[in-house]
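User: I'm putting together a small comparison set for a docking exercise, and I want a reference complex before I start. The sequence is below, and the ligand is zinc ion. Could you produce the 3D structure with the ligand included, as structure tokens?
Assistant: Of course. I'll restate your input first, then give the structure tokens for the complex.
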Amino acid sequence: MFIDSHCHIDFPELAARMPEIRAKMAENAVTHALCVSVDLPDFPRVLALAEAYPNFYASVGVHPDYEDTPEPTVDQLVALAEHSKVVAIGETGLDYYRLEGDLEWQRERFRTHIRASRATGKPLIIHTRAASEDTLRIMAEEGAGTDKGGVAGVMHCFTESLEVARASMAMGFYISFSGIVTFKSAKDLQAVALEVPLDQMLIETDSPYLAPVPYRGRVNEPGYVAHVAEYIAQLKGISVEEVAAATSANFFRLFSAARA
Ligand SMILES: [Zn+2]
Ligand SMILES: [Zn+2]
């Protein structure tokens, strides 16, 4: 069985096709999916999916790329995370690639999420792009990792260097690979995936974006996470069953509020 540890199936292009999406998951042995929140106004539709289907879970958080959206407070995130199907805080983090200018608000928002994670005991889903140095610094300052008594989490849709992966794993964080790892051009990332141990790895689609080969360029969906697992199995020279078993066990170890 495979688990999609990060998707946005509440987005209209996917939500409108839910029966088809669930059928594709079943066909590809994708048993569970974590539907990740990007802002507070849309959080109810994320939660509604997790409430409607036993094998969907939700997170609560505000994505670093969302500029004109209500800023969350720690108390607000903590209250929303009390729901039993909310298994994580995020996605949060830093993105200096998509936005420019004074991004102090992004760093403040990130700190708010780390504090909510510590207050709830629910793990962080971290998005980092062109900002790894500040991401790791703020994680350390706010005590995000298990090495600092924090809760750990996942570096989602990982595209950074092996050094960043190692620093994150030392803080107790998992490294999640998306369809990007299957792209022909992603040689550096494939080298990183080769080094990340199976027991610290998750897989995801980040759908509707980033469909893996052979669906590259199409609308992505949770069922396609099986192709990410197959690629990693090939890369590591192990069976796809081994990748499936390890990443699924990791999912339930990290997101301990999720029940199989
Ligand atoms: Zn992201
Ligand atoms: Zn995402």
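The CA atoms of residues 140 and 148 lie 8 Å apart. The first strand starts at residue 2 and ends at 7.
User: Thanks, that's exactly what I needed.
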